[in-house]
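Subject: two folds for Thursday's group meeting

Dear M.,

Sorry for the delay on this. The cluster queue was jammed most of the week, so I only got both jobs back this morning. I'm pasting them in the order they finished. Each block is the input sequence followed by the predicted structure tokens. Could you check whether the formatting survives your parser before we put anything on slides? The first protein is the one we discussed after the seminar.
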Amino acid sequence: MTFSVRSCNRSGGAAAPLIAASKPDAALKPSRGTSRRRMADTSARLNGFRSFLCMAIVAICALSGAAPAAEPLRIVTEVSLGPYEHLDENDAPGFSVEVLRRVFAAMGQDVTIEAFPLFRSWMMIARGERDGFFSSQRNRALEQICAFPDEPLKHERWVMFVRSADVGKLKFSSFDDLIGHDVVVRGSTPGMIEDWIAPDLYKFLSEHNIMVEASGSIPQLRMLAAGRVDYAVINVSSGMRNIALLGLSKKIRPLLSRSVAAAGLYVCFTKGRVSPSLVDAFSQALKQFKQTEAYQAIYRKYFP
């Protein structure tokens, strides 16, 4: 069994550190007009991508058959600094990466993992150029082109993060608590992400013109710490890990009393390239591995 990884940026070379690539804060408050333009741009991208997705579904359905299980799988993931994928770190390549190594090894399945920017990864899946993607949530759009195993890699939940100084002043017992406050969310990947994470919340934020988009949890946390927004919607694992990474443990805290969303994180396998029997075998192997001490050790390593 062989297992190899590769991380690429948009130009195909080695991925640059995401922290260094982040732009410095240019203002203390986002422009309402800028927020509207961003939402309009997102809507335009969404419409275009959905048209492409429909064509991709037809093409995938037309494929003659899935690749035999004996062939090496080619799986992609997102270039990330989160606890799930970080291929540039040999000693800590990410929770999902380490779990997949063990599960595919138990199956005797060869696999190659590559990391690309998120949208590029999804386009490769939609065009049928790769065999799968991780770590992904299930949604209606993805289920048209991907087969999901029954067993998730991990369950995750998303909550509101606020500045420590605002704990007790700001709350999240209902959407109405957010009125008058800017809320930063991770920007949508057209046709993908907006279908799974709290669509009712996104609609509410858009209608009240209080939604601000960022490229990931690190810029979200920086905007929150700088006072540019009052709330940030981030999953608990990535949020807590990146708060420590940025040295913001005393400045930012999660509001854990209510979740924004909860979902399993999966490997999704491309229909037409991966057989249903392999997907089922992976699900069973993952379920068995999650009962072992080895899985618990990996879990404690990334989520102490």
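Second protein, same layout:
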Amino acid sequence: MVNDISRIGETVLSIIGGVSGLIMGMIFIGFFFDSFYYFMGPDYFYLMFGALSLSGGVIGVVCGVIFKYHVKIASILAIIASVLCLAGGIVIFGVVGFVLLLVAGILGFVKK
């Protein structure tokens, strides 16, 4: 069922937050492979945080796609993705993804 209220804001915020989470995940996984080749041993710290950021980014982009049809589910998923992006991205991209996805999730619950 399609709602009459426009969900453009939530959609844009969650897609931008998801893309920033994806970028942060790719950067961390790149650091993992860089440490693997140059320092003769993998640093699983980067791989773990990269996987968290990638999963938060993918969930964030999926939320942006389904916000028009399933608002409550997308809002819950956006809040979960924001926590994953915050846990996965320690530097600035993780905080940006966290804030954008959290705002999108809260807006999804607040808008009637």
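Two things I noticed about the second structure. The chain has one domain: 8-110. Residues 8-110 form one domain.

Cheers,
T.
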